[in-house]
Write a structure and sequence with these properties.
By secondary structure, the protein is α/β, with parallel strands linked by helices. It has one domain (4-211): Vaccinia Virus protein VP39 (Rossmann fold). The chain has helices spanning 9-14, 22-30, 48-53, 65-71, 107-117, 168-171, 178-187, and strands spanning 36-40, 57-62, 77-79, 92-98, 118-129, 138-139, 147-148, 157-158, 173-174, 191-199, 203-211. It has a 7-stranded mixed beta sheet. A two-stranded antiparallel sheet has the order 6-7. Strands 8-9 form a two-stranded antiparallel ribbon. Strand 4 (92-98), helix 5 (107-117) and strand 5 form a beta-alpha-beta unit.
Length: 212
């Protein structure tokens, strides 16, 4: 099975710039700990250093062989579908999902899998593009004046983007309005604890910490 990111793995590793404050948000919500921290959709393993610096042992899964070719230098990885995680029930103390939920048309199903593999009391951290200010409906060409156009509620998959320098225009993205994203977390049986927003005047990222 060929993954969409296989075609852009080299570009992602060499040229893609992470969003401002991304690692800080991940660190603040995940916090210090030990044991395995599973990253669903780990990509090139760019977040492994942050996770490891908090005391956790990062492990990643991803569908893209191209991305995993870079990730394997940074953390233990396996090629797997996030909708069917190769972990036993109640076996993992922490799971993170960083900038990938828009790549997953069945993210609610992924969240149910996250809950299944988490230990009781285990922590889950979601960091993703902000549902209200990032998407095919948001023109961010002027960071001081974000223009929101119709399309926020349609939940579509599209390559439409205000820039040709990002991921969305290359592989496409699924949009989840804020209420759908939060409902998916609670519907999966996860208890939300804290939230975060990061970026410029109009936030770029939205984060959630939840527990089983």
């Amino acid at each position: 099975m060929e993954a969409a990111y296989d075609e852009i793995a080299d570009w992602y590793e060499q040229d893609f710039e992470p969003l401002p404050g991304l690692y800080r948000q991940l660190g603040e919500l995940l916090g210090a700990g030990d044991g395995v921290c599973l990253e669903v959709g780990c990509g090139t393993g760019a977040h492994a250093e942050t996770v490891r610096g908090l005391g956790w042992t990062p492990v990643g899964i991803d569908l893209s062989t191209g991305m995993l070719g870079y990730a394997i230098e940074r953390l233990p990885v396996a090629r797997a579908n996030a909708e069917r995680l190769p972990f036993a029930d109640d076996s993992v103390p922490a799971v993170v999902s960083v900038m990938v939920h828009t790549d997953m048309p069945a993210y609610p199903k992924v969240l149910r899998e996250v809950r299944r593999v988490l230990r009781p009391g285990g922590v889950f951290v979601h960091v993703g593009v902000h549902p209200c200010f990032c998407g095919h409906f948001a023109d961010r060409s002027d960071p001081d004046s974000i223009v929101i156009t119709p399309g926020y509620h349609d939940g579509s998959w599209t390559k439409k983007s205000w820039t040709d320098k990002g991921v969305r225009n290359r592989v496409g993205a699924k949009h989840y309005p804020l209420h759908e994203l939060l409902n998916a977390v609670t519907d999966a049986g996860l208890r939300m604890e804290r939230f975060g927003e990061g970026g410029e005047a109009a936030p770029i990222t939205f984060s959630v910490r939840a527990r089983k």
